[in-house]
Amino acid sequence: MTTPLRRKTAAAAAREWAVIAGDGRAYAEEIGKYGLMRRTGLLSRDLRVMDPVLSYPSSILGRERAIVVNLEHIRAVVTASEVLVLNSRDPIVAVLVHDLGLKLSASHQKDQEAQRASNLLSLHEKNLPFEFRALEICLESACKYLETETLTLEKEAYPVLDELTGNVSTLNLERVRQIKSRLVAISARVQKVRDELEHLLDDDMDMAAMHLSEKLAYQVSIGQSSRFDHLDKEIEEERIEELEEEDEEEEEKWTESLSGFRPKIDELEILLEAYFVQIDGTLNKLSALREYVEDTEDYINIMLDDKQNQLLQMGVLLSTGKLIA
């Protein structure tokens, strides 16, 4: 007899997340909605961004204690010490989880070696904060996935378009129609990722919000704690719901309390610019392919117009021949 309301519908439907720790260890964990909110400081509106049923556009959001990543197949929450990835049983996402474990483990080992060598100055100069390393792996995965799809489409499209110019048939026209449909869909997805990166690069406040490690150190230095830190587990759900209702007011207070937080955004800006250039290059390839499709269509229309003119001329000649006869 698990009431009230079956323990808030099994802690708001616990879902399986792949958790990648700071040292690269990866394991699966069932986490409910309220547990995730308490663990990451996120609110319901942030979690909805990662719901595949709701089809939110590509987005990277900096919050109080976490970065929400919703790019292509990636639904992840990055904190200053761990990464939580949704849908890890999907083969494409499983590759991301493997990469996160492998690369974060290698970074962690380098950090330890530098500490053992008492080369802390070099460590802070060379290594990105944990959250940026994790974010970079997510960006790399999304950009690489879209680039692979683009290259596959290019390999299929150009031969089909060239074949159509030599043989205008129903089969070839149908193949070109399917390619155009895929081209439009992939271009829209690439454009969304590009737009999100451009939006981040244009907004220094958003980039500042993503400096989780620095922000955490700053909060400790001024004696401030997160509004989720002191919740008792027994009243967790009720208190979190109150925070949901006070969402805007709470966020304004939190933002004001960090008014003195001014991190250097250069490192993050360089990171984002690198992937912006990469995704922009992918979009340019798709634009070139779209132009080739349009040129092919123009050529086919010219050919058809020429054939039509020839038929009209032949009709006129035949009509003239009958009149003379």
Describe this structure in words.
The protein is an alpha+beta fold. Helices cover 68% and strands 10% of the residues. Strands 2-1-6-5-4-3 form a 6-stranded antiparallel sheet. Helix 4 (91-116) runs antiparallel to helix 6 (130-166), helix 6 (130-166) runs parallel beside helix 12 (266-324) and helix 7 (170-202) runs antiparallel to helix 12 (266-324). Residues 121-125 have low confidence and may be disordered.
Summarize this structure briefly.
With 325 residues, the protein is α+β, with helices and mostly antiparallel strands. It contains 12 helices and 6 strands. Helix 4 (91-116) packs antiparallel against helix 6 (130-166), helix 6 (130-166) packs parallel to helix 12 (266-324) and helix 7 runs antiparallel to helix 12 (266-324).
Give the strand order, joined by hyphens, for the main sheet: 2-1-6-5-4-3
Outline the low-pLDDT stretches.
121-125
Helix-strand string: HEEHHEEEEHHHHHHHHH
Biggest sheet descriptor: 6 strands, antiparallel
Question: Based on CA inertia axes, which overall geometry fits?
Answer: elongated
What quaternary form is this?
Answer: single chain
Rounded to an integer in angstroms, the radius of gyration calculated over CA atoms is 28 Å
Total count of helical runs of at least 4 residues: 12
Mean pLDDT: 82
Structural class given helices, strands, pairing?
A: alpha+beta
Helix content percent band: 55-70%
Proportion of β residues?
5-15%
Strand tally is 6
**Terminal CA distance:** 102 Å
Features of the shown structure:
325 residues; alpha+beta; 68% helix
